[in-house]
Amino acid sequence: MTEANSAPRSPVTEEIPHGTLGNLTRYIRYDLLSGFLVFLIALPLCLAISIASGYPPMAGVFTAIVGGIVGAFLSNSELTIKGPAAGLIVIAVGCVTQFQNDLGVDAAAAYRMALAVGVVAAAIQIVFALLRTGVLGEFFPTTTVHGMLAAIGVIIMAKQIPVAAGYTETLPKEPLELIGELPHVLMNLNPEIALIGAISLLILFGKPLIKNRFVQMLPGQLIVVLVAIPLGMYFDLTHQHTYTFQNHLFSVGEKNLVDVKPQVFAIFQSIAMPDFSALQHGFAWYWITMYALIGSLESLLSTKAIDLLDPWKRKTNLNQDLMAVGVGNLIVSFIGGLPMISEIVRSRANLDNGARTRYANLFHGLLLLLCVTFLPMVIHRIPLAALAAMLIYTGFRLAHPREFVHVFKVGPEQLVVYLSTIIGVLGIDLLAGVAIGIAVKLAIHLLNGLPVRSVFKPYLEVVEDDPETYRIIASYSAVFSNWIPFRRQVISAGLVHHKNVVVDMTECRLVDHTVMEKLHELERDFEQQGLTLRIEGLENHRPLSKHPHAARKSSRRVVSATPPAPVA
């Protein structure tokens, strides 16, 4: 899911424990190198995400700095990188824009009001962590989450194409209307700015195709910056001026560069405090909900994804990680930063670059602090078109055509859910889109025979096969909406009591894709404990596709006359 470096990792020859201070020095040569390489990726992305979110450029850098420090000492997630994420751009820019439009305040005032929203959302995330709600990340159907991310990718691309093209006229705010205006944008681009944007895109899309080892070691974002800065100097973007191209007059200047003060230590002048008067407006609480829910969900899913790739098979305490994210967000919202999550692209780059422990996250944050403190004049030289190109590339990867094909292969009904979520997000908003995706998935399940009584409660019976094995007999259904209590029962019978577990699906009328996928993930947790998790009873179920995790519908018409009681 990232174009990050693919340097080979050393073979796993030892067990690396969670977060002891001794790891800071023991693995410093691995973590410092990875932290440095992730820093090279993170700096331009933090600036790009900030600007696209309607925040000052340094806001995202504040987030990554705090995320690196807080994540290293409060979370036990060893390989994730904490920082601003492209997936939250839609929420951030929507929040700032509504304060501007509804209250008639300027961009600076709207930004400080958005910081107050971030403070309250962070407090809610801390409450989530204290209530141990990290497991709620298990509720949302996989396809719906992927559809939400794809829609976010489409919105990011639509909003950043005009920036990469140097188009400065006012555009519609609604995603579908904005997409309709893109042909007009491309026909009225600024040639010099568009050339920088086009070359940047060519680098980002072309680099993965070059098999040279040295080229693959260099982050694409770094190459873009190294090329875009000289181009900006060639076009003299530090001075406001006009030029003529094919009898049309165009204007360029410092407005096309990152707006930061080029003086050493100027970063500290970028610190801003939240304006809590924002909380008296009802719509502010909508954005608080969006930040708290979507931000927490994205962070939990990213952390789980990286755990699955960890060569040392370490497992993150999701509640502890959510606490770290909440505390980090509380701090950054008080100093002028964007909300943070465990970010998937930089986390994957961290893993690929050979990181061993969470201190790679710390080093990446400290290197960002040193860079923006002592080299702001270099940051000021980066053309906005280059940063926009990075976000277009990120958006494309979120909404990659391959993802549509993958979803269809899992099952045609999954593609319906996926497309419904995308259309809902683009046509209404994020929460509505996710709700539509969930509703469509439930409707499809009901059409496939999902018993209403088991929509939210699994019917399970636990019996002892032998002294070493528990059998969990499931009746009626095993679907995403009853997965959390289902999962709790599997973990209790197996991992808590240290027993092997057989999940017997013979009496289930429907087993959905989400449960199939999550049971597969649990198999690895059992293996780590020297146990086995086995699924039986699917011989009489018809898979809805050839994919190994496809939903399965029973061909049997009769369920046991005395099904077990529902599990709360």
Structural commentary:
The chain is of the alpha+beta class. It has 21 helices and ten strands. The strands form three sheets. Strands 5, 6, 7, 8, 9 and 10 form a six-stranded mixed sheet that branches. It has a two-stranded antiparallel ribbon with strand order 1-4. Strands 2-3 form a two-stranded antiparallel sheet. The longest helix has 28 residues, at 282-309. It is globular. The model is unreliable at 1-11 (pLDDT under 50).
How many separate helices? 21
Describe the largest sheet.
6 strands, mixed
**Which of globular, elongated, flat, extended, rod-shaped describes the shape?**
globular
Distance between the amino and carboxyl termini: 36 Å
Give the structural class: alpha+beta
Return the average pLDDT rounded to an integer. 92
Q: Helix proportion of residues, in percent?
A: 55-70%
Beta-strand fraction estimate: 5-15%
The overall strand count is 10
Query: Over the alpha carbons, how many angstroms does the gyration radius reach?
Result: 25 Å
Low-confidence stretches: 1-11
Task: List the SSEs and their pairings.
Layout: H1 22-26, H2 28-52, H3 58-74, E1 81-83, H4 89-103, H5 107-130, H6 142-165, H7 175-187, H8 191-206, H9 213-217, H10 220-234, E2 241-245, E3 248-252, H11 282-309, H12 318-335, E4 341-343, H13 344-352, H14 359-374, H15 376-380, H16 384-398, H17 401-410, H18 412-427, H19 430-447, E5 459-466, E6 469-478, H20 483-496, E7 500-511, H21 513-528, E8 533-536, E9 541-543, E10 552-554
Parallel strand pairs: 6-7, 7-8
Antiparallel strand pairs: 1-4, 2-3, 5-6, 7-10, 9-10
Helix pairs in contact: 2-3, 2-10, 2-13, 2-14, 2-16, 3-12, 3-14, 4-5, 4-11, 5-11, 5-12, 6-7, 6-16, 6-18, 6-19, 8-10, 8-16, 11-12, 11-13, 17-18, 18-19, 20-21
